[in-house]
Every structure is written in C-alpha cells, then in structure tokens.
Design a protein that fits this description.
The complex is a heterodimer. Chain A has 21 helices and two strands. Chain A is an all-alpha fold. A two-stranded antiparallel ribbon of chain A has the order 1-2. In chain A, helix 4 runs antiparallel to helix 13. The radius of gyration of chain A is 22 Å and the shape is globular. Chain B is an all-alpha fold. Chain B contains seven helices and no strands. Classes of the chains: A mainly alpha, B mainly alpha. The interface between A and B is large, with 73 and 77 residues.
Chain lengths: ~500, ~160
C-alpha cells in the first residue's frame, strides 16, 4: 500500500493537476450535452492524453470519466433528458424539483452526491485493488485466459440488446485483435498485404469510428441543428453542501451499491443507479415522496453512478478486465501510454498505480468545486446548437485519430468503423463488446496459446488448476445463462410476434 | 418479404458479421497456409485460435439467422428514413471527399473548406459558416501543431502554419 505513495510526486505537478482540472471541465461539459457522455469524452481526448506524461494523461482521462458521469445529471434535471444513460434515474426527482423552482438545489445536490459517491468508490478502490492484484499474482496463463473470457462474456451478457448480439459484437472485437503480425510465428494474419495493417487497426481509430462518428451520423439524421432549448438560469450556490448532510446514510449506501455493481464487469452505472434509487425509495422517511422532487432520489442515483466509476476501475486496474465501455477505453489509454493493467502493474510500477489512484481522488475533489462554481455555464452549454457541435466533434475526431500515428490510413479505418457502428446501432447491437473484445483479444489468445504450450497442447490444464477451474466454471455458467436468456427472449417474441420499435 | 423489410438492418449486420468467419477460414486456408503458419501445435499454428473464434462465430450466426428467419427478434430495424438521413449521407460523402483530398491539399486547405461546408449544410448562414470553419480548423490546428507537436498533413503545397 505504501508503495503506491510513490505516485504522489508524479501527480502533484502543474501539468498533471492542470490536465486533471481540464479533464473535469471537459467531462462535465460533455456529460451535460445529451447524446455525448463520458465514453465519448474519453474517446475524443484519448489522442491528446497519448501526448502527455502517463499520469497527466491518465489523470485527464479519469477526470473526464468522473466529470462526464456527473454531468449527465444536469440535462436530466433541467430538460428531462438524461445527458448520459447513467443519469436516467436522476430525472425521476431532479426534473420535478427543477419544476418547483429548485433547479439550483437539484444540480448542487447531484454534483455533491456525485463527488462524495465517487470518493467513497475511490476509498474502496484504494483498499480492494491492491488486495485483488496481490491475489491475482498467483495467476498463470490458464487463469488469465479464463479471466479475459469472463470479461468478454459478462460484457456481452449485460450489454443493451440481446446477449446473442453482445456475443457476436464481442466476436468481432476478438477478430479485429487478430489482425496484424502473429506474436508467436511472425506470420501476417488477415492483413491482405497491406503494410498499414501489420500491427492491426489502431484501437483508437476503431473506437472513435464506432462511437463518435456513428453518433454524429445519428445526430445529423435527427435534425434540429439550430434548436436552442429553454433552460432555467443557474447560479453559484453552496446550499447543497448543507442539504446533503441530511442524506448521509442514503449517500454511503448508494455509493457502496454503485461501487459493488461497478466492480462486476459489464453491470454499469445505470443498473446501480436504479437499484440504489429503489433501495432509497424503500427506506425513505415519512414525508419523502419519490418521483415528485425528493432530494433523496437525486442523492441515491448520483452517488451510485459515480461510486460505480471507482468500482469499475477495480477489475480494470488489478486484473486487466474492464468494468464497462468507458474503463475499456481507459485501459486502452493506459496500454497506449506503455503500461498494461493487471497484477504485474502493481508489482513493477506501483508509482503509476498510485498516481492513478491519486488522480481519481483529487479529480473528485476538483469536481466538487467546479461542479458548483460552473453551474451557470451548464445552462449555456445546453443551449449550444447542434450545428456548432457536430463539425467540432468531427474535427476533434479527425485530428485526434490522425495525431496518433500521423496516418491518413487511420482516418479511413475510423470512417469504416463509423459506418459499422451506425449499422450495428440501427440493428440494436451493443458497441462496447467490440472494444472489450479488441482490447482483451490479445490477452485471451496469448494466454490460451501459452497455456497449451505449458501443457504440451493438452486442454486439461484449464481444469486441473483450482483457480483456473473455478474461473472456467463461472465462464460456463455465464454461457448457460446466455443460452437460457436467449431462448426465453425468443419464446417471448413468439408469443408477441409484432415487432416493436422500443 | 415483410419480415425481411422489418429487420433490414439486422440482416445487413448479419451479412457483415458472416463475412468475418468466412474471411478467417479463407485466409487460414490460403495466406497462412502459404506462410507455413496454419498447422501444428499452439506455438507454431497462427490459425489455430482464429479458427476457434471463427467456428464459435459461425455457430452464433447460425443461431441468429434462425431467430431472424422465424422473426424471434423483438426489435424491428427497418430501413426507415429520418428527417436528416439525406443530409447525413451528404455529410458522409463530403467526408469521403475530404479524406481523398487530404494527402494532396493538406490540412490547412482541406479542413477549413470541409468545416465551413458542414456548418453551411447544418443551417448556418454563409458568413458565419466560413468564419466558423476558419476559427475551428485553425484553432484545433494550433492546439495540435503547437502544443502537442503533431505534424498535420502538409499536402503538395507544403502548408504548415504552426509547426
């Protein structure tokens, strides 16, 4: 644990602090805008982080993650449109509260609960990650293979849409990870003689295409480019700091629920926000009417979805298994910066892990101040017409993707995956499993082949070792769950054959 | 036929995904075979793991095609035009043109034109669209060229403003 303190000098320098502060502002602004969100923010700023020192770069990306997770509450409160899916539960009470003339308090409470929830998630992260990483030091290739498979399966099973589509999307990610030079034989795989593919398609080009470009296409399709919604004016107010004290039990409970669900790969902030909202409703005091502007509803939802950020980083950092789409891209960022998450990172680079922990905690504290001070800005951001945003996001995507390798080819990759992402979204396929499959693909293959090498090509190695056998058993259970849930969904569709558009 | 129309995007993506295992099996049997990396144990067989993934994907795709054919998918995905579908296709076409021109025209020539045109087709008046295009493209170029030391495409005119 004390080794992690080596990260203090790496973080407390002007560049890392400025990058983290900038990340919080960018995250809040991106989170506020409906349709964007923390994942989009991380995707767009990933190439910028690539040009910074590791802790400054990761500090900025983590700050966007936590800022974006909190920012989504603002449009939920002011417009009844959650800026991000994880803020969906916030609108139940946030919007009615704003309608009663308390928008200021609602936004203040959302920001304060997000910060404190994030900090509680951070404390859990700080204690559990090193323990989990220490345990994972016993892992050998069979266990890593089982864990990577678990990551792909869990993301597939809990992603939006059907589990079957999630698995297919994960399969596409695994296939993309195979492109390039084979590490063991140096053979060129699926490159079609194109030198640009000798290292495979760049993960950032694929991510930007899938998420940012496809979203731009959707935004253009939906029209309303010059619309400016009517938004209540917000002032700077610190009253929420006093209000939150009345909800301390709810806050801690919700943050812990969020952290717990965040740590389960694939579960995500939206699930935890709804569960903690339901828990808060069940345990509400007399007189608290949920759905009509109850402060406790906002606190529960926001503390959970930001607590989830800390939770999602636990398996990401200690095992190299991302908790959700955003942490998958964060993990990709860390790999780009030259560090592979997992137990080895804790052993060989404790200063990097320490720096990341500090960046996460300090980022949350910065957010507490900026979330309140910048409140008047949020209303103005919501009034920015799409006609301004679409070209800006497109150019940022172009420059960021090009800057990685100074390659126009990467821009073509981005465009192709923009089209793929659009088609997949239209067909109700989840996108996150593609990225997770792509990031975990190499881990999965390398450890699969290494394990077989150790056992002289005998598959029994995966079940002879107790930890590996346990992980493989969980993998099989998940597969059975996928089969059962898909068959049930088919039967439901058979009973109700009319296709619905929801 | 109606079933196909209702699930048009689903069928399209199914075909796209079906190409993945097909390419894996084809390349394993041709390119990897020629390189001598498509047989043997786990160490020397670069096609071993891809073939497993391709086989699993084939099984999943077969399952999915049965679901699609029997209309067991609850969500419809028809080729429906939105209010801005035509505009989105125009913007996509402009972006393809931009990517084709970028290596020759360079960033500082191609990008202001692309962004000004985008602003314009999204409903801004001509003057603000041109001003917006210039400010946005040169502002971002300043950040990337000056602060992040990225060399943007210079094109045949060797145009570089901030590096």
């Amino acid at each position: 644990m004390f080794e992690l303190l080596q990260g203090v000098p790496l973080f407390f320098n002007p560049l890392a602090l400025a990058a983290t502060t900038l990340g919080i502002i960018a995250g809040l602004v991106i989170g506020v805008l409906p349709g964007l969100g923390p994942l989009m923010g991380i995707v767009l700023m990933l190439p910028v982080a690539f040009h910074l020192p590791p802790i400054a770069g990761m500090g900025m990306l983590i700050a966007i993650y936590i800022g974006g997770s909190a920012g989504g509450s603002v449009s939920a409160i002011l417009l009844r449109i959650p800026g991000t899916p994880i803020a969906a539960a916030t609108l139940f009470d946030g919007f009615p509260m704003a309608q009663k003339g308390r928008a200021q308090d609602a936004v203040g409470l959302a920001m304060t609960a997000s910060t404190l929830g994030g900090l509680i998630g951070g404390i859990v992260l700080l204690f559990f990650s090193p323990l989990l990483a220490k345990f994972a030091l016993r892992f050998a290739p069979p266990e890593y293979f089982g864990m990577a498979l678990l990551g792909v399966l869990t993301i597939a099973i809990v992603s939006e849409g059907s589990a079957l589509k999630g698995l297919l999307a994960g399969g596409l990610g695994l296939a993309l990870a195979m492109i390039g030079t084979d590490e063991f034989t140096n053979a060129y795989r699926f490159t079609f003689g194109n030198f640009n593919l000798s290292s495979g398609p760049h993960v950032v080009a694929v991510v930007v295409g899938l998420f940012a470009l496809s979203e731009l296409f959707f935004q253009i399709e939906s029209g309303g480019f010059l619309d400016r919604p009517n938004v209540q004016r917000l002032r700077v107010s610190f009253r929420a700091f006093r209000l939150i004290v009345h909800h301390k039990v709810n806050l801690v409970r919700s943050a812990l629920i969020g952290t717990f669900f965040g740590a389960i790969p694939g579960t995500g902030g939206d699930v935890s926000a709804f569960i903690s909202y339901a828990a808060a409703k069940k345990m509400s005091r007399p007189g608290e009417v949920f759905g009509e502007g109850a402060e406790a509803g906002i606190v529960a939802s926001e503390a959970a979805n930001n607590g989830c950020c800390g939770g999602a980083m636990i398996p990401t950092l200690s095992l190299g298994i991302p908790g959700d789409g955003s942490t998958a891209v964060l993990m990709g960022g860390l790999i780009l910066l030259g560090f592979f998450p997992g137990p080895e990172l804790f052993r060989s680079h404790p200063e990097i892990v320490g720096g990341i922990f500090i960046a996460y905690m300090v980022g949350n504290i910065i957010m507490l101040l900026l979330g309140v001070v910048l409140a008047p800005l949020f209303g103005r951001v919501l009034r920015i017409p799409k006609a301004w945003l679409i070209p800006a996001v497109l150019l940022l995507s172009v420059l960021g993707t090009y800057a990685l390798q100074s390659s126009v080819f990467d821009l073509w990759v981005m465009l192709v995956f923009g089209a793929v992402g659009y088609l997949m979204r239209r067909a109700h396929y989840p996108l996150a499993p593609v990225i997770i499959g792509m990031i975990l693909g190499n881990v999965l293959e390398n450890n699969f082949r290494r394990a077989l090498l150790l056992s002289r090509d005998g598959p029994m190695i995966f079940v002879e070792r107790p930890i590996s056998a346990a992980i493989i058993a969980i993998d099989i259970l998940l597969l059975i769950m996928i089969v059962v849930s898909t068959i049930r969904a088919s039967r439901r569709a058979e009973r109700d054959p009319g296709p619905d558009q929801t | 036929m109606r079933r196909f129309r209702d699930q048009a995007f689903d069928w399209t993506v199914w075909a796209l995904f079906a190409a993945v295992p097909a390419v894996i099996f084809w390349q394993s049997a041709t390119s990897l075979e020629e390189q001598g990396a498509a047989s043997g144990g786990a160490m020397e067989n670069a096609a071993f793991y891809p073939r497993i993934v391709a086989a699993i994907m084939t099984a999943l795709l077969a399952w999915h095609v049965v679901r699609l054919a029997l209309a067991r998918s609850r969500k419809a995905s028809p080729f429906a035009r939105g209010v801005g579908t035509r505009l989105a296709l125009v913007a996509a076409g402009m972006f393809v043109g931009y990517l084709l021109a970028l290596p020759y025209a360079g960033y500082h020539l191609a990008t202001p034109i692309l962004s000004a045109l985008l602003f314009r087709i999204l409903g801004m008046r001509p003057l603000p669209a041109v001003a917006g295009g210039l400010v946005l493209s040169f502002g971002l170029a300043f950040v990337f060229e000056s602060l992040l030391n990225v060399i943007l495409p210079v094109g045949i005119f060797d145009l570089a403003l901030f590096s």
